Every structure is written in C-alpha cells, then in structure tokens.
Amino acid sequence: MAMSEPDIGLALVNIVLLGLLFVVAIAIARLRSLFAIVMLSGIYSLVSAVWYVAVDAVDVGFTEAAVGAGMSTAVLLGAMLLTSRTAKPEKSLRQLGPLLVCIATGIMLIYATVDLPAVGDPNSPANTGVGLTYLRVAWYDTGIENVVTPVLGSYRGFDTLGETTVVFVAGIAVALLLGFGERSLAETIRNEDKNLSKNAPKSDAEDEESDS
Amino acid sequence: MKSDHHVILRVITKTLIPVIVLYGLYVQFHGDFGPGGGFQAGVILAVGVILYALVFGVPSAMRAVPPAFTRSVAAIGVLLYAGVGFWALLQGGQYLEYQALFQEEPGGHHGQHVGIILIELGVLFGVSGAMLTIFYAFAGRVAEIRDEDW
C-alpha cells in the first residue's frame, strides 16, 4: 500500500515511536537506579506495543503490552526486592566490549533490513506462501472468524502445546530454584499469632479489611 | 507499614481489579473474533492478582489465591490441553485432531470450536498459574515489603 505514495502520517508516527524507544533505551543504559530501570523497561514495552499496532501487528502488540509491560515489569519488581536498589557503576574501559558488540550487531541488523519486504507488501513471502493458504482455507476448515486463532490452536496445535508446556516448566523451574514463596505467608501468620496472643484486642484484622 | 497514606491507591486498585479480570475473560472468550487468546488472557488474569499483591501485600494475595492453587492450576492447564489430544486419539483420530472429537465429516465445525475453546482454556490455566507461581517465588521470599524498600 505504501509502495506508490509514502504515507507521511504513518512515517511520522513511526519516527516518533522509534525515537521514543531510542531515548528510553539510552536512559535505561545510563541509569543506575534499578526501580527506575524496571519502570522504564515497562515504558519501553508499552511504546513498542504501540509501534506494533502501528505496523498492523495487533496480536503481537497486544501480547507485548500484556507480557512485556504488565507481567515482566511486575516480576522484575519482585526480583528487584531480592537485591540491592542500585547497580554498581562499571569501569568505562569495560564498557568498550559491549559497546563494540552492540555496534556490530546494529550494523548487521541494518544491513539485513535492506532485504526486508515493505510493510504490507502483497508479494512478500509471508503473504504469498502458507499465510495466504491459511487465509483462504481457515474459514472452511474451522468456521472461526479470527484467522490467528485456528492457526495457533488448530493448524499449529502442537506448537502451542509446546509453548504452554514451556511456560509451565519455566514456572516450576523458578519455583524449584527459589521456593514456592510460602515463607512470606508463613512468617506473616506467625507474626499475627504472636500479636494476637500478646494483645488480643489490638488485632491486625482491621487493616486487612475482609473482602468476602 | 500500617499507615493509611495509600488509601487512594487501595481504593482505585479495588475498583480496577474486577475490570482487569473481566477484561481478561473477555480476551479469553472473544479470541475467536478479535486479537487475543489464552496466553494474553492468562497474563492479564495473573496481573490482576499481582496488582492486588503489590498494593495489599503478598501475604493477603496468597490468602486469596494460595500458591498451592496457582501451581495446581498451571498443571491442570497443561493436562487439559494434552487431554484434548488424547480425547481425539480415543475417538479414533490423530493427536489434537479436533475434527475427530465428535467424529464429524469434513466440513463439520463443532469439534474445531470445542477443541479450540478447550485448549485455549488449558493455555489460560497454564499461563496464569505459571505466571503467578513465578511471581510468588520471587516476591514471596521477602517477608514484608515496606515503603522504604522501593
């Protein structure tokens, strides 16, 4: 669609969003406060989610907003509590190696971008091969309106089963390494029991506000 | 710690969490028509509980949604997904062949709908349970989160 006449509005949106991503990335690299870094990485995910929507990848953007901005920010906040609040400053000489790696990777990625098809190009491999077949047959095969759902659930059901298992295994692995987290609950209950036996009328129950 | 200067946060969170959970369920059951599905819905549901834990404390969240429950839900989710595959096997089809669930002719869509809804439920359970297990594993190691800790 953008082949014949470039859409200036879309280009501006892209430039603004990618510029925001760049600024946030620089800020993350330069900050030392872990709390600020966690919050900024959430913002980074949110901006990239908006950008995915701008390039018509709604599902990816949605997932990025839910997982990147929501879930991983919360998990990182939890992980941050286990360590110190600020990162140690690196010696400037030791920053040289990572910088070179970043620049080399960036040059390679930009070089690879030259061969990428334009956004929405109907002749791109993604739109002519199996993707087109899915669009044509999914409705007759499954009778489901959103083509993404039968591709994920039906045509590639094994993939999705594998992904679900990976998520499950990740959860179990983290729990096995760090414990199931019941220490905090047990400690709270122990403290409450102590408080109750010490001074029964002044209980914590008021603060907890029963939700039931 | 027991101060009440988070009252606005608490009130807003209390009104937000039902909306978050409702939105998660909408994403789950509207996945046939719009963007979304089990993965996103599972994460949204988990985030609802995590928000509760961040504002009201991890122990209160663990009372509402116990860690034993989250890890069982994760296991049940994977079991449900894999079980749909075995259901198809038992009906004489191939693994995860939804067409075989009700032994339909080609062109019948009932098995596809039921199969996909069931596996999406499996994904929802698996993802939300695993995410909450991970969060509890990290956040539960600290006894109490004080305001100064942030």
UniProtKB/TrEMBL annotation, chain A:
<protein>
    <recommendedName>
        <fullName>DUF4040 domain-containing protein</fullName>
    </recommendedName>
</protein>
<feature type="compositionally biased region" description="Basic and acidic residues">
    <location>
        <begin position="191"/>
        <end position="204"/>
    </location>
</feature>
<keyword id="KW-0812">Transmembrane</keyword>
<dbReference type="InterPro" id="IPR046806">
    <property type="entry name" value="MrpA_C/MbhE"/>
</dbReference>
<feature type="transmembrane region" description="Helical">
    <location>
        <begin position="96"/>
        <end position="114"/>
    </location>
</feature>
<dbReference type="InterPro" id="IPR025383">
    <property type="entry name" value="MrpA_C/MbhD"/>
</dbReference>
<keyword id="KW-1003">Cell membrane</keyword>
<keyword id="KW-0813">Transport</keyword>
<feature type="transmembrane region" description="Helical">
    <location>
        <begin position="6"/>
        <end position="27"/>
    </location>
</feature>
<dbReference type="Pfam" id="PF20501">
    <property type="entry name" value="MbhE"/>
</dbReference>
<keyword id="KW-0472">Membrane</keyword>
<feature type="transmembrane region" description="Helical">
    <location>
        <begin position="160"/>
        <end position="180"/>
    </location>
</feature>
<feature type="transmembrane region" description="Helical">
    <location>
        <begin position="66"/>
        <end position="84"/>
    </location>
</feature>
<feature type="region of interest" description="Disordered">
    <location>
        <begin position="191"/>
        <end position="212"/>
    </location>
</feature>
<dbReference type="Pfam" id="PF13244">
    <property type="entry name" value="MbhD"/>
</dbReference>
<keyword id="KW-1133">Transmembrane helix</keyword>
<feature type="transmembrane region" description="Helical">
    <location>
        <begin position="34"/>
        <end position="54"/>
    </location>
</feature>
<feature type="domain" description="MrpA C-terminal/MbhD">
    <location>
        <begin position="20"/>
        <end position="82"/>
    </location>
</feature>
<dbReference type="GO" id="GO:0005886">
    <property type="term" value="C:plasma membrane"/>
</dbReference>
<feature type="domain" description="MrpA C-terminal/MbhE">
    <location>
        <begin position="124"/>
        <end position="178"/>
    </location>
</feature>
<dbReference type="InterPro" id="IPR050616">
    <property type="entry name" value="CPA3_Na-H_Antiporter_A"/>
</dbReference>
From TrEMBL, chain B:
<comment type="similarity">
    <text>Belongs to the CPA3 antiporters (TC 2.A.63) subunit B family.</text>
</comment>
<feature type="domain" description="Na+/H+ antiporter MnhB subunit-related protein">
    <location>
        <begin position="8"/>
        <end position="133"/>
    </location>
</feature>
<feature type="transmembrane region" description="Helical">
    <location>
        <begin position="73"/>
        <end position="96"/>
    </location>
</feature>
<keyword id="KW-1003">Cell membrane</keyword>
<keyword id="KW-0812">Transmembrane</keyword>
<protein>
    <submittedName>
        <fullName>Cation:proton antiporter</fullName>
    </submittedName>
</protein>
<dbReference type="GO" id="GO:0005886">
    <property type="term" value="C:plasma membrane"/>
</dbReference>
<dbReference type="Pfam" id="PF04039">
    <property type="entry name" value="MnhB"/>
</dbReference>
<keyword id="KW-1133">Transmembrane helix</keyword>
<dbReference type="InterPro" id="IPR007182">
    <property type="entry name" value="MnhB"/>
</dbReference>
<feature type="transmembrane region" description="Helical">
    <location>
        <begin position="116"/>
        <end position="138"/>
    </location>
</feature>
<feature type="transmembrane region" description="Helical">
    <location>
        <begin position="7"/>
        <end position="26"/>
    </location>
</feature>
<keyword id="KW-0472">Membrane</keyword>
<dbReference type="InterPro" id="IPR050622">
    <property type="entry name" value="CPA3_antiporter_subunitB"/>
</dbReference>
<feature type="transmembrane region" description="Helical">
    <location>
        <begin position="38"/>
        <end position="61"/>
    </location>
</feature>
